[in-house]
Specification:
The complex is a heterodimer of chains A (about 100) and B (about 180).
Chain A lengths: L5 E3 L2 E2 L10 H4 L2 E2 L13 E4 L10 E7 L2 E6 H4 L4 E6 L2 E6 L1
Antiparallel strand pairs in A: 2-3, 5-6, 7-8
Chain B lengths: L1 E3 L4 E3 L22 E5 H7 L4 E4 L11 H5 L19 E7 L2 E6 H4 L3 E5 L2 E6 L11 E6 L8 H6 L4 E2 L3 E4 H7 L4 E2 L2
Parallel strand pairs in B: 6-12
Antiparallel strand pairs in B: 1-2, 5-6, 5-11, 7-8, 8-9, 9-10
Classes of the chains: A mainly beta (about 100), B alpha+beta (about 180).
Chain lengths: ~100, ~180
C-alpha cells in the first residue's frame, strides 16, 4: 500500500443498515466541502516540559519502537487526522 | 470518512474498509499501541513523550463538550438498532469480520465473555472518564486467564484487542447485525 496522506472528508454516517458494492459510497451524505477540516500533514512536536496542556485534558497517546507521542484530543477536534511516521511505520492518528 | 487524495480512496472510519477509489476493498490496520487518557496520566507514564504542537499550541478549549454530554447523536443522528440507546458508550470491535459491541456499564470493574473458542476481557475503572480508553484483551479459551485488574492491565496472558470506544449509534449505523455482549 502506498504511503497515504489521509484527510477527513466530512460526511454523515450511513443511515441504512446494509450496503453493497458500488452503491456504498453513494449512501453517504457530504456535509462539508473536501478539505474543510485541515489534517495535520507535517506534524511538529515539543517535549513534555515545553508542552502547555491542562492536566485533565485528554490525549491520544502512542508508543512505537519506544517512542512516545501524545496528541491532544482538544487539538484534534480541529484537525481530526494527523499523518505521522515513526521509523518506517507511517500511520494516521484519527479522532 | 478518511480520504487519501493521492489515490482518491475513501475509508469509513467505523468500518475501516475502503469503499471507493483505487484502494477500494483494502483495509487499514488498527494499531494496538494507542491509548486515550488524561495528560497527567500519560506524562507520568511517559515523561519522555513528545507532544503534537500546531502553530505553537499543544492544547485548546474543548469544542465538543456539548456533543459528548448530550443525549443526541451528531446532527441528531439516532440509532436504528434500538437494543441500546443512541448515545450509550460502548467498546466495539470485530472478530473474523463479525462486529461486536459491549456497553461500558457492563465492563466497569472488569468482565469476560466467551466468544466461540476464545475469551475476551474488558476493563474500565469506576472513576474513568468517557474519553479514557477501554482495556480489551483476547485469549484462547484454554488459556485460563484470570479476570483481575492487574492481569488485564499488564496485558499478560492475553493479546490486546483493537477496537473503538464510541457511541452505539455511530457503530450500529455502520455495522449491521452487531453482536451485543451483555
Amino acid at each position: 500500500m502506498k504511503n497515504m496522506c489521509l484527510f477527513l472528508a466530512a460526511t454523515m454516517a450511513i443511515m441504512s443498515a446494509s450496503w453493497s458494492g458500488a452503491d456504498e459510497f453513494s449512501k453517504y451524505q457530504q456535509i462539508l466541502p473536501r478539505g474543510q477540516i485541515a489534517a495535520v500533514t507535517k506534524p511538529h512536536y515539543v517535549t513534555a516540559k515545553r508542552a502547555v496542556i491542562a492536566g485533565d485534558s485528554y490525549v491520544l497517546g502512542i508508543v512505537v519502537e519506544g517512542q512516545a507521542r501524545a496528541y491532544s484530543l482538544n487539538l484534534l477536534n480541529n484537525h481530526e487526522v494527523v499523518n505521522d511516521q515513526i521509523g518506517d511505520l507511517p500511520f494516521a492518528a484519527v479522532w | 470518512m478518511l480520504q487519501d487524495r493521492e489515490t482518491d480512496s475513501y475509508w469509513p472510519i467505523m468500518s475501516g474498509k475502503s469503499i471507493h477509489g483505487e484502494l477500494a476493498g483494502t483495509s487499514m490496520k488498527e494499531m494496538t499501541v494507542n491509548r486515550k487518557m488524561t495528560w497527567s496520566d500519560w506524562v507520568s507514564m511517559h515523561p519522555e513523550t513528545l507532544v503534537l504542537s500546531v502553530n505553537g499550541i499543544e492544547d485548546q478549549a474543548d469544542t465538543y463538550s456539548h456533543y459528548f454530554s448530550s443525549k443526541r447523536g451528531f446532527r441528531n443522528s439516532r440509532a436504528k438498532d434500538r437494543r441500546l440507546k443512541t448515545k450509550t458508550p460502548i467498546f466495539a470491535f470485530r472478530l473474523k469480520g463479525k462486529p461486536y459491541a459491549v456497553p461500558y456499564y457492563e465492563i466497569v470493574g472488569g468482565k469476560q465473555f466467551n466468544i466461540g473458542n476464545r475469551v475476551a476481557y474488558f476493563y474500565r475503572s469506576p472513576d474513568q472518564g468517557l474519553h479514557d480508553s477501554t482495556l480489551a484483551y483476547i485469549a484462547d479459551a484454554d488459556a485460563a486467564c484470570l479476570v483481575e485488574e492487574s492481569i488485564i492491565k499488564s496485558g499478560e496472558c492475553a493479546a490486546p484487542l483493537t477496537g473503538f470506544d464510541t457511541f452505539w449509534y455511530n457503530w450500529s449505523l455502520n455495522n449491521a447485525s452487531t453482536a451485543l455482549l451483555d
